[in-house]
Amino acid sequence: MKTTVFLLEDDLDITRLIVRTLSQQGIDTRSFRRISEFEREIKRQLPDLCLIDLSLPDGDGLSLVNGGGLPCSVPRIIVTGRGGLTDKVVGLEIGADDYIVKPFEPRELVARVRAVLRRSAKSATPAAAAKNELITFGDWSADFDGCTLTHRDGEVINLSSSEAALLGALVNSAGRVLSRSQLLDITSGRTGEPFDRSMDARISRLRRKLRDDPKAPSIIRTVYGAGYVFSIPVDTKAG
């Protein structure tokens, strides 16, 4: 089946470049200039991946990255001219699977799109979370098929596809230290760049969802100079 990408971009030149580049790779790309058009089509058909600009005529694309009717199973990549570190960290913190700054090389776009698609396919059902199984740890149970966390007190937390992939990687390696580069490779299909702190932002967001004290985390512990380790016992139960 052909891969379908939805592109939300109001710059016609950028739109033509992206559509042409992805079409040459056999990827069907549908473009939208407004959030309202994009949201209407999402209700009719789900793509395999979304490319989302931030500055749009009828709003900020961040609202889509952080939910906006997109199920957690649909990966999303921000493609924007906002190249500041703060913008990138915020974008990744709220659930983007990757962040591409304009102008970009077409080959880089293709590589990142394919990497996110590979990661999405791998994380659809993490190795330790087979069908009809729930992963439990501490006060939480994780449903990787549904991209949700459920606390013992009944609260249900939604996870983005990137958060589910990251938690799955940590859970599957519970008790073992994983470096930032290893986590980035597992969850995004690419290795870290110099001074790339995107994984720190993702870990921070996941800790908040797990109610893990950022000053003294007990679930996802930082091993300074080495990376992160999932520190509590994990149990797999049939759903």
> Please, what is the CATH homologous superfamily of the largest domain?
Response regulator
**Mean pLDDT across all amino acids:** 85
CATH architecture classification of the largest domain: 3-Layer(aba) Sandwich
Largest sheet: 5 strands, parallel
Q: Beta-sheet strand percentage?
A: 15-25%
- SSE order: EHEHEEEHEHEHEEEEHHHEEE
What is the total domain count? 2
CATH class of the largest domain: Alpha Beta
Computed CA radius of gyration, to the nearest angstrom: 18 Å
Distance between the termini: 30 Å
The total count of strands amounts to 14
Low-confidence stretches: 125-132
Structural class: alpha/beta
Q: Fill in the CATH topology of the largest domain.
A: Rossmann fold
Widest sheet: strand ordering: 2-1-3-6-7
Number of helices: 8
Helical residues, percent: 25-40%
Please give a handful of descriptors for the protein shown.
Arc Repressor Mutant, subunit A, 5-stranded parallel sheet, 239 residues, 5-stranded antiparallel sheet, 2 domains, globular, 8 helices, alpha/beta, Rossmann fold, single chain
